[in-house]
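Pipeline run #58 for the internal structure catalog. This entry was flagged by the ingest filter as a single-chain record with no existing model, so it goes straight to prediction. Upstream metadata was stripped on purpose; only the residue string is passed forward. Reviewer on rotation: M.T. Logging verbosity set to normal.
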Amino acid sequence: MSIQTGKKLPIWPTAFLEKHGITADLTERELKILEIDTAYVLKEIHAHNPRMIFHGPVEDTRYDFPPGHMPYIEETMRIRKKNDSCVLTIKRKNTSKEIKEREEFEVTLSNPKAFEDMFMAMGLVPVHVKKKVRYSFEIETVTL
């Protein structure tokens, strides 16, 4: 389950992000629960009268330098395709030892192919592709 707060956070963006005026618009706090009873969790979520904002397939492609290359950045770069939209997400290094908590930059892409080509030109390669089905709900100011 990924829970995102709508709180805006000031951070120290890289030169590229700063140049383009992109600042972090959320912090993701991620809790993974293995062997979860999905029906039970959905029942508990529905007890709080959520608004479903998405249900469908999602494809994530993560980019990094190929094996053996000394990485220069410690961020995760991902292009997520969901319906007809694509979002580039750059996630900072994890800041917590107890849970996965990191600042994120997100930009909606009108031309994801151009970014994929740019990553390849920089020497980055797709290192992981994950296809999944996602449910997203809003309860007040929280996205589940």
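catalog note: Confidence is low (pLDDT under 50) at residues 1-14.
catalog note: The first strand starts at residue 2 and ends at 5.
status: ready for reviewer M.T.
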